[in-house]
Amino acid sequence: MRNLVPTLILSVSCMLAGTAADHGDAHASEPKAKPASAPAGEAPASSEHAVPAKAETSNGVALQRLMEGNKRYATGKAEPRRDAVRRAQTATSQKPIAAILCCADSRVPPEILFDQGVGDLFVVRVAGNLVDDAVLGSLEYAVDHLGVDLIIVLGHERCGAIKAASAGGEAHGHLGAVLTPLKPAIEQSRGQPGDQVENAVKINARLMAKQLRESRPSLKAAGDRGALAVVSARYDLDDGNVEILW
Ligand SMILES: [Zn+2]
């Protein structure tokens, strides 16, 4: 499945460069397309759980919508759906198109930077976008009970949690619970060329995404049956763009 990822990148890129985004309520009224299975002769989804190459599949469409929304936001053309009508549409039930695990940083609000409305995103926020049991339980609920089939782990530029973990030193209060899970990314980033915090942000997003893919029993099982894709991404504080890291 890994070799199909470039196809999706090209596909999404072409769509983003094409017609205006469908920003209506189509997703709320139309049933989700069944996730694509591996083409004949090709191995089934690997532990990578890459997004299926066909953008018409559910998580491919969701990723496309999010990237289109980010483009609107980054270019000052956001169309937020946060009015009374949308509130009424979602008051008694929810059908989010994706789950986002991102940092608690005040500058990284997923609904805004992906230009999505009330009820569109299932969001879990914690400093350093780390994975712990509470995060896993929350995301399992989104996948198993709300039908979410796309999770994005979103790291961001100049992440304070990554900076603190990189600086080391004694953690006061409960801060250790945040900094300790970030250490593997810090360690992997040491010695790499370029900015260490920036490198660690990307590594951490990838590691946390990998942890979600391999989480038993729920998320791994969903990935194995083609009902879940987990991707990592980085948000740029300067220009507002989200970059998919995979
Ligand atoms: Zn952060």
Give the SSE map:
Blueprint: H1 5-16, H2 26-29, H3 58-74, H4 84-89, E1 98-102, H5 110-113, E2 121-125, H6 133-146, E3 150-156, H7 160-167, H8 176-179, H9 183-189, H10 196-213, H11 218-224, E4 229-235, E5 242-244
Parallel strand pairs: 1-2, 1-3, 3-4
Antiparallel strand pairs: 4-5
Helix pairs in contact: 1-3, 9-10
Bound molecules: zinc ion.
Residues 103, 105, 128, 156, 159-161 line the site of zinc ion.
Could you explain how this protein is built, in words?
With 246 residues, this protein is α/β, with parallel strands linked by helices. The chain has a single domain, classed as Beta-carbonic Anhydrase, Chain A (3-Layer(aba) Sandwich), CATH 3.40.1050. It is 41% helix and 11% strand. It contains eleven helices and five strands, in the order ααααβαβαβαααααββ. The protein has helices at residues 5-16, 26-29, 58-74, 84-89, 110-113, 133-146, 160-167, 176-179, 183-189, 196-213, 218-224; strands spanning 98-102, 121-125, 150-156, 229-235, 242-244. A five-stranded mixed sheet has the order 2-1-3-4-5, sandwiched between helices. β1 (98-102), α5 and β2 form a beta-alpha-beta unit. α9 packs across α10 (196-213). It is globular, with a radius of gyration of 18 Å. The two termini are 13 Å apart. Residues 1-56 have low confidence and may be disordered. It binds zinc ion.
